[in-house]
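Pasting as-is:
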Amino acid sequence: MNIQQSILCFILATLVTLCIYQLARALFVYRTASKKLYFAISTFGGSIFVFFALLLLGQTTPEHALFYHRARIFGLMICCVGWLMCMYEIYFTKSVVPRIFFLCTLGIALILPFDVFLSLPVQHISVQAMGSVFNYSFATPNPGYSIYAMVVLLFFGLSIYKVAFSENLPVSKAYGFLAFFPGLIAGLNDFSITHGLFRSMMLSEYLVFGFLVSAFTYFLAEEQHNHTMLQKLYEQLEVEVANRTCELQEANRMLQVAATTDMLTGLANLSELRKRIRMEEERINRKESDGVTIAFLDLDNFKYYNDTFGHHVGDFMLKKFSALLKANSRYIDFIARYGGDEFILILPGANTEESIQSVERLYQVLEDTNHLIPDLEEYLGQPVEIPDEFKLDFSTGIAEHRNDIPLEELIVRADKALYSSKKSGEKGGIGRDRIIIF
């Protein structure tokens, strides 16, 4: 095997590999008529072109040489059609030029088996280059061959013109020139040699190989770029998903807070109170509870603050009193706003005496803070005079769980005790004297 045959075998093996690789990607990855499929068609035609060029180097009969030359031109037709469609898919997606070229090539291919395209006799050319002899065999070209050469030159020349005078191309103009220029050179070279215009090396095989490999390199670079872009998008998506997840978790937390919390005071609401009552009852039923006591609290003189200073001050006093309750209760105690200025304390494991002590501590803290008057002055930004009989205070009703009574009933009993406590306050009872036991 001489150097020319070795080169053509290498080119053929490379083109076949590219064809199989791109065809597999087009059919199984992209699954659409994309530039990958057209490139696979082009490399398939290039493989036919080089294969029969390789056969023309061997000893063969004139009839076989004529057939090989016709088959070689057929491979060139497939290669040019696929290549033009591939490049137009990159540069001019909506153009009808490659479809027109396909129809023209198809019409010319119909006369390819006849002598009007190529005929006997077969010419043999030997060229000395790079220390080796390069042999070529050509059938005699006829008008059909000239027509096809002119069609190739026309459409590839038109493509170069479109690239040169088009703006906002998806790929650089330089690559466009390199993409379409080899079609001109290969066509001119093949046409010139077969028509005896000069006796030089046949460049077509090498040009076909060159621009197909260049295109493959472009596709590899494009896929690498796409991979990098997808990786960045994936990372951005992960960050976005993480951010949205955090936002969703925060929204869910806020919804949970809104569903279980009194929005003014930050204490548990009635829904959460009922849930806690069920939980305490379950603990009692499982004998896991050391008992539970409920304290029902109601603010005294609250109406005075609403009527004198406005409802915004009333809301402020509710919030300050709620903060006082939370700050001076055990961590296991449960505090809920029952409604208006009423509050419920669930004291797990506490008997009546311990509950009284807890409430007395609240009275003491309220007294130590001068019934929240300093906080009110700070809120209003001015000193205020509150008569003793209108200082914020509270009354309490306490009921301890006994004899398996439902906790809902325990709240009713604490409420009755609270009512008695309020009546006691109307008769002059103040502070811890307002604790009534059911």
